[in-house]
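Archive entry. Fields below.
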Amino acid sequence: MKRALAFAGRNQKEILRDPLSYLFCLAFPLVMLVVMTVVNESIPKESGMTVFRIEKLAPGIAVFGQTFLMLFACLSVSRDRAGSFLVRLYATPARSGDFILGYQIPMLVLGAAQTAVLYAASYVVSLIVKTPLKPLGLFWSFLSLQLSGILFISFGLIFGTLFSEKAAPGLCSIIISLSSFLGCIWFDAESLGGIMLKICKALPFFYCTKIGRSALALSFTKEAFWLPLLIVASCALVFDLAAVLIFRSRMRADLA
Amino acid sequence: MTERSFEMIKTTKLTKKYGTKTAVDGLGLCVYEGELFSLLGVNGAGKTTTIRMLSCLSKPTSGEAFVGGYSVKEAPQEVKKIIGISTQDTAVAERLTVRENLRFMASLHYTDKAKIEERTDEMIQVFRFQEVENQLAKTLSGGWQRKLSIAMALIGDPKVLFLDEPTLGLDVLARRELWKMIERIKEHRTIILTTHYMEEAEALSDRIAILQNGRLKALGTLQEIEEKAGVKGLENAFVAIAGKEESL
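PREDICTED_STRUCTURE:
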C-alpha cells in the first residue's frame, strides 16, 4: 500500500502542477455555472424551462466537471506509457495493484475537491439568485456523485491504457460531448420524452446527473434516487474492475 | 573489479523471439560481482533486449538467466529488489523536482521514512545535485536529466545496475562528466552498460561483449578482444568482428 501511496503522490503532484488541470477541471465548469445562471435569468418564467435553474444546474455542472477528470486520468496513464517512465517503474518491486491504485487515488481526491469547490460556488450563486440551495442536499448530492466520479475515472484509465497518447484524449473528448449531451446536463430529456429519453436512459450518464439532482432536492424515492444510484454504482463497479483487468493485462503484455 | 568469485549474472542459451525474428539467440555469458561489463553492437544487435530480459522487463522465449542467484523467470520479484535500471530514454517525472523524483523512487524501494530521506540526501551528495535539487526535472538540461535518471536507478542501492546507452545524445563535456560519475559509482556494484560509443566502453569497461544479430561474437577484456580481432583499438576490433557479417 505504501508504494501505491507513493505513486499516487507523484501522480497528484504532476496533475496539480499542470495549469491545464485548473483550466479544465475548475475554471471551465465554474465559468459554465455562471454563464448558464445568467442565461437562466434571461429565460422567461412562463417558458417552464427549468434545466438551468441552480438546483438542476449545480449537479449537472458537477458531472460535467467529472468528465474532465476522465481526460486527466487518461492523460496520466497514456503519457507514462508513451515514455519509458512506467517501464522503469516495472523494474522496481512495485506491483500492478500499486500502479492502478496510484492512478485512482489522486483522481478520486481531486474529484472530491472539484465537486466540493463547484458546490461551494453553486451555493454562493444560489444565494445571489435568491433560491438558496439546501446544505444537507448539497452534502448528499456531493456524496452520491463520488460514484459517478469513479465511473468517469475508470473510463479515463481504460482509454489511457488501451490507446496512445495522441488517440486517447480524442476519445475522451467524444465521451465528454456524449455525456454532457446524453447526461441531460444542458437539456431536460424527461420533459421531452420519446426516443431521446430512451437513448439517454440506455446510458449511465443520465443516471449520474439524476442522482446528483435528486439528492440535492432531498428526493430519495426509489424512482428518483435509489434505482439510478444502483445503476451508477453497478456501472462504476463494472468499469472500475474492467480498468483494473485491462491495466493488468496490458502490463503483462508489455512485460512479455 | 578485484575478484571474480561470484557470478552476479549468468545466462544460459538465453533466447528472445518476436514472432519469426530472433532478437537474442542462445546467449551465454557470465558477469562477475563488481564488474563493469559493456554490451556492444550495432542497432538491432540485441543489447537492449538482453537488458530487458535481465531486468525482468521481458520474458525469455527460452533459456535461463540468473541475476544475483535469482532466476528472472522464477523469481522476478527477488531480482527486482537487487537491480536498478536507467533506460535509453530519460525516464523522469517531469513535473517533480529533482529531490521529489529521488524521494519518489526511494519510496518504491524502502518503507522507512528515515531511510527514504537518507538515500535521497545521499544521492544528492553523490551526484552533486545541490544547485538543482528544487528544480523541476523538465527544466533541467539533457545532461542533468540523464544524471537524475541514473541516480533514480541507484537509489535502491542495487547490486546490479543496468545503464542502457546512458550518454546517448549528450555533448562531449556532459558525456565526460557522466563517465566520471559512473567511475565513482562502480565500486562494490556490478554495472551492465550498453553503448554505441567505443571510447566509452574502452574507458569504463572491465570486460566487453560484442553482439551481432542477437548472437555473442566476442567476449573478454579489451586486450583479449583486440587479440581476437588482430587489430589495435576497440573501434577497429569492433569493426573487424561485427563488420564481417554485416558487410555480407
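CURATOR_NOTE: Residues 137 and 216 of chain A are 4 Å apart (CA to CA).
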